[in-house]
Design brief:
- Chains A, B: It comes from Pseudonocardia hispaniensis.
- Chains A, B: This is ASKHA domain-containing protein.
- Chains A, B: InterPro entries: 2Fe-2S_ferredoxin-like_sf, 2Fe-2S_ferredoxin-type, ATPase_NBD, Beta-grasp_dom_sf, Corrinoid_activation_enz, Raco-like_middle, Raco-like_middle_sf, RACo_C.
- 2 copies of one chain form a homodimer.
- The first copy, chain A, has about 625 residues and is of the alpha/beta class.
- Among the domains of chain A are: about 100 residues, Beta-grasp domain (Ubiquitin-like (UB roll)), CATH 3.10.20.30; about 55 residues, no CATH class; about 150 residues, Domain of unknown function (DUF4445) (Nucleotidyltransferase, domain 5).
- Chain A has 19 helices and 29 strands.
- In chain A, strands 14-13-12-15-17-16 form a 6-stranded mixed β-sheet, with helices on both faces. A 6-stranded mixed β-sheet of chain A has the order 28-27-18-19-20-29, sandwiched between helices.
- Chains A and B meet through helix 5, strand 9 and helix 6 of A and helix 5, strand 9 and helix 6 of B.
């Protein structure tokens, strides 16, 4: 969906063609691992396996099992440092090889500084590119094992389950009753050759014969407005189908506050909101399965990234404490969940990964976004902004990471704007002034019906450039306008005593049928951008850095993807940096959800983020209002 | 229910009035713990806490929390042996005390031989007597904790769940989504004073205010014929209500084989059998809650002991492999289960303990029975017999324990017997010959309608004594009968060419209206008792002991409770021992289920039994048939 605009922005030179994520470096960590012959040294958290330390840093080690300890291909030699022998090492190596330091990299944890030698590749590691240009070694929680078991006899009355688990003795499994119910028939229907379906450490099913090739998962980005589902083939890491739809909770209000309010006014509202969110997810799941020609029963895991309110509602947890001071989450980390707990009818015992929240207004969507954009690993000072009604801001250098939420209001959604509308067909989304002429780009290439968030930012920025709006946000007087921009000045007029700038005259040239930008609209945008810039300027202060020293700004969320970096700088929504440093990060929440499904290591990285990132509450800061007023003016 | 007969047997001197279980001693184990000043030395498995080692052996150590590490009352001093300092010891003792060896007994694991000193009691440990005279220290999996939490502020935005878990930091808890859904409202409804409901290591609910006094559990004995439910107050260990009813699966057949066959013939039968068993349990649960005036939502855990077929059926696991050679269980240990998984509507997230099975015909009921009768702890050579259609036999001395199943057939249930009936109103259950007169005891004191299992055994035994049946099992010729027992001889007659002995003539003295014992009935009983005695004689041989050296015989199950020990010896169903050594053990399956609910230690003892007990399969023994034929005659 966003690709067309991305291409256009690339052509216009507004977007940096280099994917920044490709440059990520590991930043948090306590031990050093030196890899020969590549002569690369990396720092990783103590306890990380050598295999992961290598794969996180793009150093390829042979593996066909993705680091599960089963293929025994990830042989490395420890040249220096602690290297205890694991239970699988003694099967994989001779005593002489063990003495020489040979170990399986996936089981060799780096508990101290290490120097290791990596033999040349024989097979290629399986990896997928997700998130902001991140390469993820495939290590999904979903595992399938094809097994040929011996038939029982009177002399060997081992129970069905113990027979199966003995063949999976490298895993410490819990067993779902569903799998046990299916086991006796599955074994006897297929001459004791079956496929065990494991998710994390749970045996959730057994399937007769060999079904190892088919293992799917669905990543959900549960937005307040839009919900996106991606069906993933976890065997290859590739997306099979993507669908999006409006959140069916829309009738309860456009933003999270109106939905929380609904649950306060009506005790039955929470159940209805839960059902509507669950129906949205379930319908999308059915859609992507149909589109991808996958049986829903072959989907064994889902991941869900949403803001705290959406996550509470879809799980049926009361959201009221999120909506009133002191803004309290029911929990940061969610307990073990099933897809059924969020109403998604795929495999009946499919499991669900729901992203944890950092705070009432820095939810799982932002945690997923941080994961996808490598906020915890990139050593550059980076600013992450998910622009929306509630705007989440993250600032960090990999070592120290701060986050906060800024109440931007609904301007970016097109609400509270005179001619505002959502980014749908008929919305003016790009506004340019060139050679004294106004040029509009309209979604769907149809007659303009209104102005969406990106169009609003563009219109204000272009009129600032043209001088028709001054730094304080006022439309200049008519005579000054004629002087500065004679070809545009007649568009500056009034309606009901309020000054407006007409963007599109409509059929008969009547001002009442026109699409315009009003003085009050400019004020709304000023409030919104001031909330955001107050947020990141306070975070910068907390971190002891200046906004100008920020090396990269990631604009995230569906709105961020459409925003012109140059105009975002122009109105002061982002710090004044080279436009090349402003990067569209795309749907990072959805990308984070995909990463969690493709790699258990990345998933645990998301959980670790909660300990690494500090949430800064702005609402109780005495200096917030002064700062906010200071930020209302547009930059010089 | 059985108490009346127990009293009667006691009066008759047929039952040993001393509860044998009171003498149990710990027999399995690897380390020695010496207790001063009592000067008692016990052997326990390495790793067992000193607290448990003491309580298992009747040595009282102060405790009000039941060994959960919270009351800090269980102070002991380690005089000799390894005594690492636990995390709670440093809070409970001064450095000087720690140097002197003071430790909390509940956290002090005996990893080597120990000598400890136990201070005199200040409070009494809470214990309950269950099983075969066993004293169980209360340590239920259900725990309730009343907590007063600090209210959140903008300066302390800790999430609701983390706030709660911080107050439970001595427990490593998993959290049920249900508890999380209730948490925000519960906290805010009660000024942050709530009761946490924990079962095992799972937080299943939170309740506003202090509800710690109310914590209930239900123990089920799921029999093929009869199902018994006991509502337990886990705070005191006392049973609050007991109810029983027929298993609603009865229409599918009287024994497990007919029910397994039903699932083979009709693919939908398993679902119907599952529903019927679940309905039985659920109806009983509602009954005991009503009787005990307990809200079903206050029942947080259930335990279920049943044979392997019943357990498979109630869980919806296909039972077919149990019914055909090589007789394979789907599993020995069941996975983590909820009461809802067996259809019991109590607390929606109540958990379920389902007893594991040793083999297809030595099920969870027998494992529960072994637990209740202390088969793993009593050092005497003991024989445990659960008499029924399928008869389970256990022989052991605490160190070595063997078990097997004997296909006794339905004679003991009154089936396949000409005038047979279940032990219900109208069934002749006791038959005695005294002073040449036949005396009958009929259930319900009504007109006799038939002969139940215990009446069958009595009738045959008494006629053996009177000489009317010879050792080979034949009725003696009429003239010989007149010689031996003139007052009874006219009862020996014929019907349709088969010889019979009339027990009750009915209204008009017509043989066709009589209740009688037929020659074929005697044969059925011979087959049944031969199967059983072949079983225990083979187990004795495997163990290298003679049946005469057995020190105690436990007759278990509802049938065993009604059986006359003297007549059981007479017909050779049990070894020829002093009648005082034959003990009615009662409903040991139900008692075992209660023990599992009252003590997590006892529960893990049940799981441990599976590793300690060896299952001996009789059906593939080449000498089984010869042995069986040898056992058909009655003892001299």
């Amino acid at each position: 969906m966003t690709e067309g605009y991305r291409d256009q922005f690339l052509r216009e030179g507004l977007l940096d063609p280099t994917p920044r994520g490709a440059e990520v470096e590991l930043a948090v960590g306590r031990v050093r691992v030196h890899f020969a012959p590549a002569d690369r040294e990396v720092r990783v958290p103590a306890g990380v396996s050598v295999f992961d330390a290598a794969s996180w840093n793009g150093i390829a080690i042979d593996s066909t099992c993705g680091g599960h300890g089963t293929c025994r291909k990830c042989r490395i030699r420890v040249l220096d440092g602690p290297a205890p022998v694991s239970r699988l090492d003694v099967r994989a190596f001779s005593p002489e090889q063990l003495r020489q330091g040979w170990r399986l990299a996936c089981l060799a944890a780096a508990h101290g500084d290490l120097a290791v030698e990596v033999p040349p590749l024989v097979t290629r590691p399986k990896a997928a590119t997700v998130g902001v240009g991140r390469q993820v070694i495939l290590r999904p929680a979903i595992q399938k094992r094809y097994l040929k078991l011996a038939e029982p006899t009177l002399a060997d009355q081992t129970s069905d389950l113990e027979r199966l688990l003995a063949a999976l003795d490298d895993l410490q499994l819990r067993v779902d009753l569903h799998a046990l119910r299916r086991l006796p028939a599955a074994l006897r229907a297929s001459d004791y050759t079956i496929t065990a379906v494991v998710v994390d450490d749970v045996l959730i099913d057994v399937e007769p014969g060999d079904s190892t090739a088919r293992r799917y998962a669905i990543a959900f980005d549960l937005g307040t407005t839009t919900v996106v589902a991606t069906l993933l083939d976890t065997a290859t890491g590739t997306p099979v189908a993507v669908r999006s739809m409006l959140n069916k909770q829309q009738p309860f209000g456009a933003d999270v506050i109106t939905r929380i309010s609904a649950t306060m006014l009506d005790p039955e509202a929470i159940e209805r909101l839960q059902t509507l969110a669950q129906d949205t997810l379930d319908e999308l799941a059915a859609d992507v399965c149909k589109q991808g020609e996958v049986n829903p029963a072959e989907v064994y895991e889902i991941a869900l990234a949403g803001n705290a309110t959406m996550t509470h509602l879809v799980l049926g947890v009361p959201p009221e404490p999120l909506g009133v001071a002191p803004f309290i989450l029911s929990t940061r980390h969610w307990p073990e969940l099933l897809a059924a707990d969020v109403g998604v009818r795929v495999h009946p015992r499919a499991r669900a990964v729901v992203f944890p929240s950092l705070g009432a207004y820095v939810g799982g969507d932002v945690v997923a976004g941080m994961l996808a954009s490598g906020m915890d690993r990139d050593k550059r000072l980076r600013l992450f902004i998910d622009v929306g009604t509630n705007c989440e801001i993250v600032l960090g250098d990999g070592e120290r990471i701060l986050t906060t939420a800024a109440p931007a209001g609904p301007a970016f959604e097109g609400a509270a704007i005179r001619c505002g509308m959502r980014a749908a067909d008929g919305a003016i989304e790009v506004v340019r002034v060139a050679d004294g002429q106004l040029r509009l780009q309209v979604i769907g290439d149809v007659e303009p019906r209104g102005l969406c968030g990106s169009g609003l930012v563009d219109a204000v920025a272009e009129l600032l450039t043209a001088g028709l709006i001054d730094r304080s946000g006022r439309f200049v007087p008519a005579d000054r306008a004629r002087e500065l921009a004679p070809t545009l000045a007649d568009r500056l007029t009034e309606i009901d005593g309020e000054r407006i700038f007409v963007l599109h005259w409509g059929g008969v040239g009547e001002v009442r049928e026109a699409i315009y930008l009003s003085q009050r609209d400019v004020r709304e945008l000023q409030f919104a951008k001031a909330a955001i810039s107050t947020g990141w300027s306070l975070l910068a202060e907390e971190l002891g850095v200046t906004p100008r020293s920020i090396q990269q700004v990631l604009l995230a969320g569906s709105f961020g993807s459409y925003l012109s970096p140059a105009n975002a700088i122009k109105i002061g929504l982002v710090p004044r940096l080279s436009v090349l440093r402003i990067v569209h990060a795309g749907n990072v929440a959805g990308e984070g959800a995909k990463m969690a499904l493709l790699s258990v290591r990345e998933r645990s990285g998301a959980a670790a983020l909660l300990e690494e990132v500090r949430y800064v509450e702005l609402s109780d800061r005495p200096d917030f209002n002064d700062r906010f007023v200071d930020q209302l003016a547009f930059p010089a």
